[in-house]
Amino acid sequence: RVILRNEREGFPVSAVREVRALHRLHHPNVVSLIDVVAAPPAAGSAGPGDAYLIFEYAPSDLTGLLAYRKQKLKPPEIKCLIRQLANALDFCHLRNIMHRDLKPSNVLITAKGDLKLCDFGLSRSFTGPGNYSTRVITLWYRPPELLLGAKHYDQRVDVWSAGCIFGELLAGHALFPESSEIKVFQKICERCSATAEEAWPEELRRLPQWEKFGPRRQPEDLANGASGGDIFAELLAKHGPTAVDLLRSTLQLDPNNRISAQAVLEHNFFVQEPLPCQPAEIKVNQHLSCHELDVKRHREKLREEKEAQRQQNKRPAPGQAPGQAPGQAAGQPGSPSTKRPRPP
Does the UniProt entry include the keyword S-adenosyl-L-methionine (predicted)? Predict the structure, then answer.
């Protein structure tokens, strides 16, 4: 739904970008825009009616799939999903389109296990590094060059985000889950073994936020490597050197050294045993809608239930004095009315 009544200049730019991008992107791993429908104005309203972008339906996104599965994704499923994601990105990049908001909730999963890249509201056409906004890509999936204030960048920002998603599938949790730009940057330094200034390319050290974010400005324990651990070493024992090599290639600090989406597809990760499964073999709940919003609502409900139970436990039972433990008689040890002798 596109709400137009508060828009001074007609259709919002994010909706225009999405329609333009999807008009050019017809691919099995990119969501299909079926139609754009304009609704009539509401009764008594002087403004325009809302518009609706109608897409093909997918019952889950990657956030929901990970949250509601009883078991972690198996290696063949991870390979299948990452290969589909790389296919979508390669198709976009060959047509000079950056997505710029790649994250699990923007990766839809159909009932048949097909991956569909969606939400192109921040997408941008490019013909090479240009003067673009740094306020793109959700924080946990934002590459270091954007955190440091780079305005000249290209499609390799999407590859970093895809690497974050890949690492999340391997590890079972987000790689850089922090609440601010500087904390995310610190987490990248920590988990990518880049706590020394020398680990960073000269090009990034010249960016506007380097003086504020650079490793030498970090807490002493982090600069000394005393906090957290190398994500690549952590995943090596469980997933093997080939998976870690692909992950490391997508999470290169220097965007010039970062692998392309096409090179991801050509990596040995996809031809070594176990091979990728077919999309239809990915276990998707056929009877449950699992999107990021559903996950947030479920977690909020659990928090409310837990808080209600906590408040219930604080209430004294009938006939019980405040602060008196259940089943405890007044005057017994532990009761507020008990006077204990002072030690001599």
Answer: no
- The DSSP line for 175-211 is SS--SSHHHHHHHHHHHTT--SGGGS-HHHHTSTTHH
pLDDT above 70: residue 44: no
pTM for the structure as a whole: 0.80
Pairwise CA distance, residues 296 & 292, whole Å: 6
Domain ranges of the chain: 58-296
Question: Which residues lie below 8 Å from residue 327, measured CB to CB, with a gap of 6+?
Answer: none
Provide the 3-class DSSP secondary structure of residue 125.
Answer: strand
| 134-167: burial string, b at 16+ Cβ within 10 Å, e else | bebbbbbbbbbbbbbebeebbbbbbbbbbbbbbb
Quick one: CATH architecture of 58-296? Orthogonal Bundle (1.10)
The amino acid present at 293, given as its one-letter code, is L
Q: Phi/psi class of residue 120: alpha, beta or left (left: φ > 0; alpha: ψ in -120 to 50)?
A: alpha
Q: Is residue 230 annotated as part of the catalytic site, yes or no? A: no
* Angle at 75 (CA atoms; ends 59, 170), nearest 5 degrees: 85
Query: How many other C-beta atoms are found inside a 10 Å radius of the C-beta of residue 252?
Result: 19
Across the chain, mean pLDDT equals: 84
Residue 309 has pLDDT above 80, yes or no: no
Task: Judge whether residue 229 has pLDDT over 90.
Answer: no
Per the structure block, which two tokens stand in for 319? 């006939």
Report pLDDT for 306: 67
- At residue 157's C-alpha, the angle toward residues 30 and 1, to 5°, is 45
- Contact criterion met (CB below 8 Å) for 53 and 121: no
Q: Which residue type occupies 343?
A: P
Determine which one of 61, 101, 119, 154 is catalytic: 101
Helix (H, G, I), strand (E, B) or coil at 13: helix
The enclosing H or E element of 143 equals none
